[in-house]
Each structure stands twice: as structure tokens, then as C-alpha cells.
Amino acid sequence: MKQNEGLPFIKFMMLLSSMTPLFLLVGIRGIQIKDGDNLLISPKHTWTTIACLIVIPYLVIKFRIYFSKKASDIYPLNVQEATLNKEYLFTYLFTVLLPLYSVSISSLNEFYAVICAIAFVIFVLWNMNMHFINIFFAFGGYRVFTLPNQNGAVLLTTRQNLSNNIQSIKAHRLSNSVFIELKNYSYDNK
What we know:
By secondary structure, the chain is an alpha+beta fold. The chain has one domain (about 10-190). Helix content is about 45%, strand content about 20%. The chain has helices at about 10-20, 20-30, 45-70, 85-100, 110-125, 135-140; strands spanning about 35, 40, 75-80, 85, 145-150, 150-160, 170-175, 180. Strands 3-7-8-6-5-4 form a 6-stranded mixed β-sheet. The longest helix is centred in the N-terminal third of the chain and has 28 residues, at about 45-70. It is elongated. The two termini are about 30 Å apart. The relative contact order is 0.20.
């Protein structure tokens, strides 16, 4: 039986947030679509769109964490068989960022092709449940672990090193399959 993900909007925002490095690379490379001597998409519009694609998902995730804290949406997770998801980062880098980095956008056809490629990557990452790779959490020292359970697996984002002597961890629920153990939060009192 497949686990019901729940909170699909949050999952989509996590996915968009995981695409932040790609959006930044597209902005740095620029979009140079011209109609004669005029740019069809100005750098100002490009960076405004990129800023929205970075900031809005991040804020939605922060609001989800806030509401999870407010509602005490905390669950104990068995971490005895946890595996660190380092390989997902390499998969992400080599299948998403590097191929799309080399694309130049100088015509409408190239622009549409990049939009379709990004949509395809989002579709693949959504279906592979790889929406948890978040650059902001990585910079904060968080790592992602897969925890097997009876319905498949859940993902735990934590700053801890999960050693063999840790049996379980309490964490906030972001969705039905993604949890985060927040730093500066006392889980012992809950």
C-alpha cells in the first residue's frame, strides 16, 4: 500500500525550494530573448521572477514549520535503520543542475524548451519523492535521512548524527512523509 503524502501544496513548495540553485543559475546566465534590438524579457523581470520562485516556497515552508510548532504536530520516529541520503545530492546535481546549466536562452524556442525541461524535472522529482533537497536547510547544517516504516519510508531532516545508540527522535511533521527536527526546540517537554 502506498503512503498518502498529504499536504501536496507543501510538497510542491518543498520541490520548488529544492530548485533554488537551478533558478539562480538561470538568472546568472540570463535570458537574452530579443525582438530586433529590444529584449523581450528584461533582467529586472527575470530576477523578480527568480526571487519569487526562491522566496515564496521558502516562506511557505517556514509558515508550515511555524504552524506545525503551534499545533504541536510532533511525532516520534524510529531512527534505528536510518540511512543518510548523500547519494540524492549527487543525483540531483548531475541530473538537474549540470545539464540545465549549459543551456543558453536566446530565443523563445530555447525559453520554452527550458521551461519544459524544468517542468519535466519537477515531475520526475515529485514522483521519485525527492522534494526534500533544500539548500537553505543544507546551509543550516541539516541532513536528510530515510527511515523505513510499514507504509514505505519517511524522511527526517535533522542536524544530529544518527548513531546506533539513538532509538527514536521526536520531530515536527511537514507532510505525511517529511519530518524535521528543529534546532533550538525542546522536544523533551512534549
